[in-house]
Design brief:
By secondary structure, the protein is mostly helical. The protein has 13 helices and 2 strands; from the N terminus they run H-E-E-H-H-H-H-H-H-H-H-H-H-H-H. The protein starts with a helix and ends with a helix.
């Protein structure tokens, strides 16, 4: 290529590079304004004592908010409750979704209608389902207590589900599994339908039973989907607040602890420190879990 040709080719490359930058610039500005700036602003707030009056300046307090957080027993209690809540709900919803997906992957009459009905709990408005459950588990006139006390005689007196420190945790866990297992069901069912049926036919020829076919063929094929479900559900549930707070104030997960810090005692600097700690915990989980999933 001649010098003139090289010069012309280089000019075209520069123009294309400039055009590419101009095309992605609005997206970069939007990401910076919506994501990057709030993150850095939150980091700055975590080192300050924020004044309630917006006209008064905030005071830099260094690591004071973090020291106060790590010396608060309520924080460790909330962290423990959150870890238990996340572990039980993620495992429970994934297992239930897997079992239902295996069932709905079989041919039977009315399968399409059954699949649609399974999605109702997931597509229904969360506020509506929470208040239906609160009505069902009401200590005075709830249908659940009527069945457990008056019909089945499992309890002598009706449990106060939403006011008891143990029953309230069990209630929000069961509700989350019930509401979210269709998400796991959908993702696992899609992975099941993508499996080549000739693999099962070959395994049957070799004499493998149903259990052996599941562990040798089905489970390895759906494992990437299960890994994605577990990682996403863990992230979502670690920040869970809305349905738990609507149900009861007796379940002190980190989302509720953060809300009370920010809006009950108006400690915005302390709340910012909590969000940074939460981010570090969740990000560490994503990195570690992601490495293990890639290795497998």
């Amino acid at each position: 290529m001649s010098k003139q040709g090289k010069k012309k080719y280089g000019s075209i490359q520069r123009k294309e590079r400039t055009l590419g930058i101009l095309l992605i610039l609005p997206t970069l500005i939007l990401i910076g304004a919506v994501i990057i700036y709030p993150i850095f602003y939150n980091i700055v707030l975590s080192f300050q004592k924020v004044a309630l009056n917006p006209n008064r300046p905030s005071k830099f307090v260094g690591w004071s908010n973090y020291a106060k957080l790590f010396s608060d027993g309520d924080f460790y209690k909330a962290l423990l409750v959150t870890v238990v809540y996340v572990l039980v709900t993620v495992v429970g919803s994934t297992v239930v979704g897997l079992l239902v997906a295996l069932l709905m992957n079989k041919e039977f009459k009315g399968r399409r209608i059954a699949r649609s009905l399974i999605l109702l709990s997931y597509v229904a408005p969360m506020v509506a389902t929470v208040y239906v459950w609160k009505y069902m588990f009401n200590g005075l006139y709830g249908v659940v207590n009527y069945l457990l006390v008056d019909v089945l005689h499992i309890f002598e007196t009706a449990p106060m589900w939403m006011d008891h420190p143990v029953w309230s945790v069990a209630l929000v866990v069961i509700y989350d599994i019930w509401r979210v297992f269709p998400y796991s069901f959908l993702m696992i069912l899609a992975a099941l339908q993508a499996i080549d049926m000739s693999l099962y036919e070959a395994a049957q020829v070799d004499g493998a039973n149903a259990w052996q076919r599941f562990w040798a063929i089905t489970f390895p094929e759906i494992l990437p989907s299960i890994a994605a479900i577990v990682s996403l559900r863990t992230i979502w549930n670690f920040y869970k607040f809305d349905d738990i707070y609507l149900f009861t104030k007796q379940v002190p997960v980190l989302g509720v602890y953060l809300y009370q810090t920010a809006f009950a005692i108006h400690d915005n600097g302390g709340a910012a420190a909590i969000t940074i700690v939460l981010f570090v915990i969740v990000f560490s989980f994503v990195v570690l879990f992601g490495r293990k999933a890639v290795r497998k």
